[in-house]
Amino acid sequence: MSDSALIDDLPGDLLMWVLIISELLVFGAGLIAFMGVRLTDPAGFAEAQSHLHRTGAALNTGVLVTSGYLAAMALHWRQTTRRGAARLALIGAAMLGVVFLIIKGAEYADKAAQGISFETHPFFLFYYLLTGFHAAHVLAGVLILLLVAWRDALRNIEAGAQFWHMVDLVWIMLFPVIYLLG
Known about the structure:
Helix content: over 70%
Largest sheet: none
Order of helices and strands: HHHHHHH
Oligomer: single chain
Number of strands: 0
Distance between the termini: 44 Å
Structural class: mainly alpha
Shape: globular
Number of helices: 7
């Protein structure tokens, strides 16, 4: 099988794959830097991490995984000519993205109320950079899903679902490293 055949067999749009891979590399580099700096102060990172809301983050994991499932089902339903169901699934996926942002916003508000900022400890610099950049991707994904629900061509849904699954994957990487790794 030739390289061009492999590329031709990729689901979705090639440029979306380029975007996804570049975003995964950026988040991966951020996580590697986080882990490297963590090695210099494991006790300080553990203490800082104790201020996070693991339950809310776990809930957010469930919210995004469920949202990703709805995005996948939207694609399936659009392929099987269940256009209305596909649109509702996309809107549901987007609304779960909003729920994620509300929970994340409550966590940020709690940190602010405690006087915790990116200057408090290097852990929080990485926490805000990585989760904030991810939240920006969630917001972009919500807008993409809503746009795709409106302009629901199969190719559009496929590209929107690709982006949304990347957002899910990034959170699946961030959650254990930032919230659980002790």
